[in-house]
Structures are given as C-alpha cells and as structure tokens.
Amino acid sequence: MDKIIDKFKSIEKIVSQKKGNVKLLALFELEDNIHDRWDVIISSKNLFPEDIESLKFVVNIIQRVLTKKEILKISKVVLFDPNDEFITKIQKFLSNGKNPKEFSEVEINGLMIKRGFVIKSPVTEDTTLKHAEDLIRYLIYTSKPNKIKGSIDTPSPEDVHLPFSGNLEKNDIEYTSKYLN
C-alpha cells in the first residue's frame, strides 16, 4: 500500500500544480466493500463536483501515474467542494484525532470507513497547534482566578500565555494540569 500512497502523493502534486491547492486527498475503503477497493476522495476549489471535465482531469492523471493493476483497486473517484458538509466533518475528525495519516473503523457523516489513508489533509500543524493553544487558554481562563497580586479580575483568554512545545503532547497536558492546580 505504501507504493500506492506515494503515487497518490505525486498525483496530489500534479493536481495542485495544474488546478491549484488540493484541500483533501484521501483513500477510503468502505465497510460494505467486499473487493478491497478504494474510493478516491478529492476536494479542491478548482475541481467542480458536477463538472465532467474536472472528473476526467483527475481520472486522466490517476491513469497516467498508476499501473493497470493499481487502477483496478479503485472503486470510484469522488470530487467534493471544499465547503461540502462531508469535507467539513472529515476536517473535524482529522483535527480532533491529531491529524492521522491512517485510520480504521470510523464513521463520518453516516459513512462507515473500514480503512482510510489521508494523502493531503485540510488540517495543518498550524491549525492543530492553534486549536491546542486555544484549548489551553480556555482551560486556564475558566479554571482559576487571576493570581496577579492586587488584581481581582480573571484574565481574558488572549492575555493568558504559556510555554508550549509546539505539539500538544502528554507533557504539555501534565504541565497544564500542574499549572491549573
């Protein structure tokens, strides 16, 4: 599977170069799939779901990059608008799950996914870091009054700053817990 994943990384680069940024590119094996075939999910503001030319463009690139045997592993190619509810729910799932590159046995928007591989994620490390920092600020803001001498006001979340390692790890959570107590 690693070889196909690498080829889809190349496909994403080609599509991005020719059509603009790809928001999401993923391979999903659905629960009811009995033939080990993959749905290709792609979302870009310049690929239109109802436009047959957009679909032909993506399929032609896939056909140029993959072997015939690899193409037989594809069940379908589905284009989504970046603002589609399904893409939003995938983005939320990825954001909440620390942006996994691979996952299994997940239900998203009523769709049971047996296995999934994320080639291009709409969630960036900056986005994940921002959510973690916001969460820490909120926890501090709602948990303790301001301990600044002579002040009785609670600080606003924007005023709370804390050393942060760059990734929300167990150490950060333990540090935050100690800070709150």
From TrEMBL:
It comes from the Bacteria. This is Uncharacterized protein.
